[in-house]
Specification:
five-stranded antiparallel beta sheet; binds 2-oxoglutaric acid; Prolyl 4-hydroxylase subunit alpha 3; elongated; glycoprotein; binds fe (ii) ion; 2 domains; dioxygenase; endoplasmic reticulum
Length: 329
Amino acid sequence: MGWDGDWDGMEMEMGWRWEGDEDWNGAGNISHALTLSREFLHYDPSNQRVTRNVAKYEKLLATHGDRVGRPLQRPNVTQLQNRDAYEELCQGLGAQMAPEQPSQLGCSYETNGSPYLLLQPAKKETLRLQPYIVLYHDFVSDAEAETIKGLAGPWLQRSVVASGEKQQKVEYRISKSAWLKDTADPVVRALELRMAAITGLDLRPPYAEYLQVVNYGLGGHYEPHFDHATSRKSPLYRMKSGNRIATVMIYLSAVEAGGSTAFIYANFSVPVVKNAALFWWNLRRNGDGDGDTLHAGCPVLAGDKWVANKWIHEYGQEFRRPCSRDPRD
Ligand SMILES: O=C(O)CCC(=O)C(=O)O
Ligand SMILES: [Fe+2]
């Protein structure tokens, strides 16, 4: 079941209760739970646990009706009122066609002017130009991925999100995560140098955050959100190095089913490609947040998923990604 093992196995498969919370979390579909549990008993009448669940659901329905507790929390972005695009993209039903000329997309070896990459060019696949999203294949080795997961494992804690001026646990981000400093291990340091080489950006503190290692268990997900701050009060500004200009996200594991990264407005999703690193700019060159980068980590349906995030900030990049007054850039 992976590290997100807060779920109660049986009930998680049926999808309503979240053991991490003391209360019912209000997903609310108790009558559906009851129907499925009764159907289950039809096949396995002696199952004590499901028998107990049936009694529990019947009691809950009698006392509370079908909606119990508070409504599900959602990220605070108005665009999310319509979840259809997200759900379709996660199910692989969304349009995946690139609006750009196919000749501008595709694969290339990149040295990016870096002596480091001269020896081993990056295998870049350009997925979209607006927003600019590229995938670097074989960015880490299997051994490096294992080392990073092993280093993070003991430190994993339920993930939080920036909410107003605070950070909090929310139902729309179900995962565990840990932060790794580059001093934690030579492998972390090596990955940071590699990320600096492919992006051409300055990743030294405080120009980038520590490496955030994230583990999603079954059903783990992160609903559509922006990585950059959309409010000046966001805790992201506490680093005093501006907003998050870009994201590098490394896929540290494969996933048996689900778990793609969906870009809602760009209308496509990136399947989990083990050992690859995804890069995109969150901000436009004039410093405004790029609304086209709304993205999500789709629910993991089988297996578990590990990623590592590097969030790079605006300051330090002034000469590496010069600004522009043209709002289209
Ligand atoms: O897990 C993913 O595919 C996306 C994760 C993400 O967007 C994040 O951690 O900010
Ligand atoms: Fe994100």
